[in-house]
Fold this protein.
Amino acid sequence: MEDPRKIAGFNVLARIGEGARSTLYAVHDTKSRQLWTLKHVLRNNDKDQRFIAQVEREYAIGSKLDHPALRCMHKLLKHRKLLRVDGVSLLMEFIDGTSLDQQLPRTYADATEIFVQVADALLHMHEKGFVHADLKPTNILITDQSQVKVIDLGQACPVGTVKKRIQGTPGYMAPEQARREAIDERTDIFNFGATLYWVLVREVIPTMMPPAHGDELVPHKVDEENVEPPTPPHECNPRVPKALSELVVDCVAFDRDDRPESMQDVLGRLRNTIG
């Protein structure tokens, strides 16, 4: 199917991504001459309602946030047909950047600087009462000016939410997400640690999740009492600063009570590794 030339009065310049029944476009407002990113979801059947609702929640949360390292949400547009919402478009900040998995930091100092910005963005979310719940390398963009932008609030939710479905990304998902338990700030801390581990080691940590099966995720049957922690990054590569390695291992503790208590603690330890 060809991409539309216009959506809600905006000129479509290019398709730039897909996911969760949504399509991302770079669009142009001819009046203001401004570029935007537009997330577009259409209802093709009754099952698509939950994806429309997900975009509506993403806007409801994102519009309450204001941080330079979080993508800005501008407007939610509803498309109606016969008085029914037939689709939604989320107008967001256009970011000229590359995802972290495609633009790896050159030094450990650079990696630390990037994750200081990520941690500060997540701390802002936590202070507003929300968690991201799906941090991973593809959800971190880096601009040419080394500005970090955390994107995709599609799984974001209020602190303490118990989700009906298992949601997250295998290799980065916290155990409580796989068990469908309450999600809190320490869930983001696990996702954060798993993402930083991948950047340092180029491997994902062992988690409870197998590859995706259709639209649903199901947990592994694992002996949780005997889960082995990942090899500390500095043991995989002696060049990784030990303090940074120890922080990562603490963040991905299987028991959330063994993780740092808050993102403020994580941020403080990160800054200490810079000196």
Q: What stands out?
A: The first helix runs from residue 49 to 62. The chain has a mean pLDDT of 89. The chain has two domains: 6-93, 97-274. Residues 97-274 form a domain with the Transferase(Phosphotransferase); domain 1 fold (CATH 1.10.510.10).
